Amino acid sequence: MSVAGEAGPGDAVTLGELGEAGILGDIFAALTTTERVLVGPGDDTALLATSGPVLATTDAMVRGRDWLDEWSSARDVGAKVVVQNLADLAAMGGVGTGLLVTLIAPGTLPARWARELTGGIAEVSAATGVPVIGGDLSSSDGAVAVSVTALGELPGGRAVLRSGAAPGADLAVSGSLGRSAAGLEVLRRSDADWWPPQEYAEVAAGWVAYHCRPDPDLSQGPRAADSGALAMLDVSDGLVRDAGRIATASSVRVDLDEEVLAGSAGVYEPVLGARTALDCVLSGGEEHSLLAAFPAGEAPRGWTVVGTIAETGAAGPGVWWRGERATGGGWDHFGG
Ligand SMILES: [Mg+2]
């Protein structure tokens, strides 16, 4: 990598000044490893011992698109991009075995930012026992992007796809709905000098924290697979949109439970109002809770049944809400 650092007098050290070897030395020194990493960072590739089929997924975040520096610290970004990847593994019933991290940034980026990014990655890596086994650095003219590739395996030996939902099954969620979106909404409104009512300040701060650094219970993925989940994914683009993916892949209809979901929205309503609260629950993205279909009555304890799976009618696969097909909502990278 060749980057031209242009730090002014008194500025913090930049990536350009530190150089690739210095940056990588910094980054990998902060990370832990496991015995299955036969060759770690520093050689041409890593060498990882595996127990069978390998899950592989990748997800990137771009400054200005996927995070704003005003709202998210480098540590938040590092933690979030890893969690997004591990949630995809969990959504198959899997667990992570290794992470590959790529940072693309201008030479003028403060080295401190990259170190804190690594700190966020290292925190999730240590908490989940999934080591960083390699990475890459590349320079840009200004864009900052962080990409993570996660490798994983299936403890139960069975991958849970999106296509296994069958009529009569329950659709259930592990964890929250709408919390990340509620946090984003609080951030947006606070930019316009709006603040949550005093008695909700703490709970609203919790939503913001979850938006910046989601913390879903990923152990529920393998648990769901063990419990006979028929189809599963993580809620990354909103309940309606993600349930729609199960509906399409499984050629079924999903009927969402109005009463249960109105209850979920009730948490946000006193702060955000009824309409926004329901939007958060139905369309809020980046939640990374797991959404799965189980044979009727067999959702594991702690999961919340939010709908039922039915035969498609003449209208074809889709998601129904209050007797109508639910469309749109949720985040689309290119549709906005
Ligand atoms: Mg996913």
Automatic annotation (TrEMBL):
Mg(2+) 1 binds at residues 58-59, 136. It catalyses: thiamine phosphate + ATP = thiamine diphosphate + ADP. Mg(2+) 5 binds at residue 237. Gene3D superfamilies: PurM-like C-terminal domain, PurM-like, N-terminal domain. Mg(2+) 4 binds at residues 44, 57, 88. Mg(2+) 3 binds at residues 44, 88, 234. GO terms for molecular function: thiamine-phosphate kinase activity. Substrate binds at residues 66, 286, 331. InterPro entries: PurM-like_C_sf, PurM-like_N, PurM-like_N_sf, ThiL-like. Its EC number is 2.7.4.16. Residues 42-153 form the PurM-like N-terminal domain. It is an enzyme of class 2 (transferase). Keywords: ATP-binding, Kinase, Magnesium, Metal-binding, Nucleotide-binding, Thiamine biosynthesis, Transferase. Mg(2+) 2 binds at residues 59, 88. Pathway: Cofactor biosynthesis; thiamine diphosphate biosynthesis; thiamine diphosphate from thiamine phosphate: step 1/1. ATP binds at residues 135-136, 162, 236. Reaction mechanism of ThiL seems to utilize a direct, inline transfer of the gamma-phosphate of ATP to TMP rather than a phosphorylated enzyme intermediate. Catalyzes the ATP-dependent phosphorylation of thiamine-monophosphate (TMP) to form thiamine-pyrophosphate (TPP), the active form of vitamin B1. Belongs to the thiamine-monophosphate kinase family. This is Thiamine-monophosphate kinase. It comes from Ornithinimicrobium cryptoxanthini. The gene is thiL.
